[in-house]
Design goal:
This protein is of the alpha+beta class. It has a single domain (about 5-150), classed as Alpha-Beta Complex (Nucleoside Triphosphate Pyrophosphohydrolase), CATH 3.90.79. The protein has helices at about 55-65, 105-110, 140-150; strands spanning about 15-20, 25-30, 40, 45, 70-85, 90-100, 110-115, 120-130. The protein is globular, with a radius of gyration of 15 Å. The N and C termini lie far apart (about 35 Å).
């Protein structure tokens, strides 16, 4: 249970996300697959646990969600995301990392299916960030961060 779940004051959630690039494409979770009200894209990753470094969290999340080992992990930056989601305030501090899959077959897959904590099915797809997107890409500021870092 998180503090927001029990009616406590809103809190800030630390996230660690992994950007995988393949030319103009990046891998994103297709969040329409499990929430049809607010469709959006977001790079894969998840929460940073207490006492865990963000770089270790992003490695753990890729193993847990996609059974994937990653390499060449480097931090691109940190973004802050303040939003409203289904009428509830949200606030995230997002550590954005760039990484490579150790197994090159991930770059050939059109869709990568994984499992979120609790057994929820998740899907990741490759999108071309040089083309107009059919839904928002979060966290806010991610495209600018990618452009500044050479992508």
């Amino acid at each position: 249970m998180t503090p927001q779940d029990d009616g406590a004051l809103p809190w800030i959630r630390p996230l660690a996300l992994a950007v995988f690039r393949d030319g103009p494409r990046i891998l994103v979770e297709d969040n329409a697959a499990w929430d049809r009200r607010d469709w959006f894209y977001r790079p894969p990753g998840g929460g940073v646990e207490f006492g865990e470094r963000a770089i270790d969290a992003v490695r753990r999340e890729m193993r847990e969600e996609f059974e994937a080992e990653i390499r060449d992990v480097r931090q691109l930056g940190t973004l802050e995301n303040i939003f409203d989601y289904h009428g509830r305030p949200g606030h995230e501090v997002v550590f954005v990392f760039e990484a490579r899959f150790a197994d090159a077959s991930y770059y050939e897959a059109e869709r990568i299916v994984g499992t979120e904590g609790g057994g929820t099915r998740i899907e990741a797809v490759w999108i071309d960030v040089t083309e107009p997107l059919d839904r928002p890409l979060y966290p806010n500021g991610l495209l600018e961060l990618l452009r500044r870092s050479g992508g």
